[in-house]
Every structure is written in structure tokens, then in C-alpha cells.
Write a structure and sequence with these properties.
By secondary structure, the chain is of the alpha/beta class. The chain is built from 17 helices and 13 strands. The protein is globular.
Length: about 450
Amino acid sequence: MLSIPDLIRKKRDGGQLTDEEIQFFINSVTTKEMQDSQIGAMLMAIWQQGMVAEETASLTREMMVSGEVMTWPDDWKRLMVDKHSTGGVGDKVSLVLAPALAACGCKVPMISGRGLAHTGGTLDKLESIPGFNVQQSAEQIQKILASVGCCIVGQTEKLVPADRVLYALRDATSTVDSLPLITGSIISKKGAESLSALVLDVKFGGAALYKDLQSAKLLAQHLVDAGTSLGIRTGAVLSRMDGVIGRCVGNSLEVIESLETLKGNGPDDLMELVTTLGGMLLVMTELAPSLSEGKRKINDAVIGGDALSKFEAMVEAQGSTNETARTLCSPRADYFSILRKSKHQKELKAPADGVVLGVDGLVLSQVLHKLGAGRSKAGEPINHSVGAELLVSCGQRVQKGDFWLRLHYEDPAPSSDQLDLLQKALTVGEEHGCTLIAEVLQPPRDGRSN
């Protein structure tokens, strides 16, 4: 007879948990037979002792089946794809990538999250659009996928309930940074989507969870291994996250930049991520013979307007009016006739001549967070209009006095200290390269989807 204290003791002392023991642990979490104090003790034991690959795979699988697992029509199964990002500043990739993949023939049931601390959330960005509903049932998701090919939604109540419990207690017990617990949380939710292929954008740098490439690569390998163990073809991209992706940060502003990208006017760094992540998924689903051809197909879907048409259809399918969707996606859209515009804007001047080497994304996002763009606790309201536009790009030559940032704010107004922080976030100097992608981890050759 299995006992909860015995399991905690075994892991605390460095033992390897069996599949049966991990199943018992997750079942006890889901059925609330395990006290929060006991769950916290087990989480700390896992944090201290770690898990071998077999334990992590078992943990991920049991979390996945703790609730509803989505099912799809047989002719969709090879085409079901998604991507996950570990979080960044100005990370609007999903808003461009999901419709681009749909335009290339994929089905994209993208389950996304909300912003917390300095990282923005895809759901918050989309909720800048009046009427857009991120809460959709499994039946509604399938209907949207049938008509549009993509949707971007929040986690349903029935999906991976074990993760809801563990996620809250990880925060309370300072075990958020445990590799097996991170892996289980991310991959169990993707597994419950019944995907054929998954690509992970694992970020590293000053504005990322992991500050160096090696730490990020270790996480990426854990995620790829866990996804593969569930039968999902899984690959990863390791990308730099020191500055800002694209030129805009803040919910409404990022929606505008995403729409401009879908109209063929996207910044190079954003398109680099979109085409690489999308290209990998097209190769994994055999819709492209090579990464270069996959990237070309994604690029063509964006530049040619097919992805924009999918985005317009998705916005309407998820609750916005036809007029809202049509206006936002029109060639010369008056965006602020639909989206909230901040009451005040302020432009900052470059303090010196030189080449833009970068902008400290962490500093920028932390200031915007305090001005109302983000939240410190789940459920807190945010101001969709607060944000910033970079008026310069990496590698661009500027002169002292040139405007480099436009700040969008309401109440509170930025303090002198916050304005000083923003000015110090800009680095100018001598020319150097600005590519985001550092490395690509292809899916294992024997990694096959179900």
C-alpha cells in the first residue's frame, strides 16, 4: 500500500520514483487527498534531488492525463501543431505565427497564458481587441479550427487540473525553477492538446528566466525529451532575450505591430523568429521538405496576406464583431478607432552619437509594469494602452538628440527616476551583429507523433 509520507521520504533521500508512485502522487494532488503541506514537501524534495529522464517523462504523462485530453478528427492528427515560448519582452510571435501556420495548412489550437511580472501575456494582448474571447470550450475550439485553422485561447478548466494545483504551490514554496517541474508543467499542457508537433522558443539573456545559453539549452533538452516521450515531434530554438522583440512593448501596441507584420511591414527580428519556428513545424508535419523551404512558405503566407486573412477570421470567430476584425485588418487601418490609446505620450532623446547596440528589455518592461502595463499577482487588472515604441533599431546609427523611444502612459505618470532608468536602458557604441537565434535543436530522428 502506497503512502504519501513514504513517497516524500523516498524522494527527499534521493530515491527514484516508479511510474506507479508518480501516478499515485498526481492522483492524490488532483483528488485533493494530499494536503498542501505534503505537496509542498514533495515539490521541495523534487527541487533538491531532481528527477531522472524517466521520472520526468512519467510526471509529465500523469499530469497530462489528470484531466481532459483533446481529441481531433483523424484527418487532422498529422497537422496539429503549437509553439511555446519561455517568455520575453515584446514577444508577439504567436499573434503572427498561429495564422501563418493555419494559412500553410496546419491546425493550431494555441493555448496561451497571461502576463506576470515583467513578461507580457498573449491573452492580455488579444484582449486589447474589443469582444475578443480567450475562454473557449473544447467544442468551440474544434469548431474554430474547422472554420479558421487556428485559435488562441486560455487553458480550459478541465485541462491538466494537476498543474493548476502544483503551479500555485511552486510559487509559494520557491520551487518555480525546478527543471522537472517546469518541464512537467509546460509539456503536460501541450500533450493534452494531442499535438503532432511542437516547437519551443527557449530564451536566454538579461530579460529571460535563464541568463546564459547553457542553462537555456539544458531546459530546452529536457522539454524536447519530455515532448518526444509523449509521442510529439518536438524541437527547440534558443533565442537571445536581452532587448525587445520588434519595436513595441505593451498590449495594444503589440497588437498593432503584429497587424503591421501581417500586412508585410514586420521588423526583421520578429520575422526571423516567426519564419524559423514556423518553418520547423512545417518540416515536422511534412508540409515542407527542408527548414529553408518551410521558412519560405511561412514568409510567403505573411507577406502575401494569407496569414492576415486567417487572423481576421480568428478575431471574428472568437467573439469580435465583423466590423472590428475588418477595420483592424484593412490596409490603412485607424487602429486607435478600435484599440485603446493612452492619454499621454512622451518621447525620449538619445544621449549620445553612435550605433544602437541594444535596449535593456528588462528595465523597459519593469518600468512599463509599474506604469500599469503588467500585473504582480494573477487576476490583477492591466491597462492595455500603456507601452512603449522603439523609434530606433539595433544596428542603427543615431545622433545625440534623436528621438529613440515613445512612451505611452496614463496614471501614474513616469517619475524622474523611471525616466532616468529608461535613458540608461539605451546602449550606443560601435557596430555589431543583432541576430536573435543562437541555436536550433531539431527533433530526434526517432521522435514520432501518435
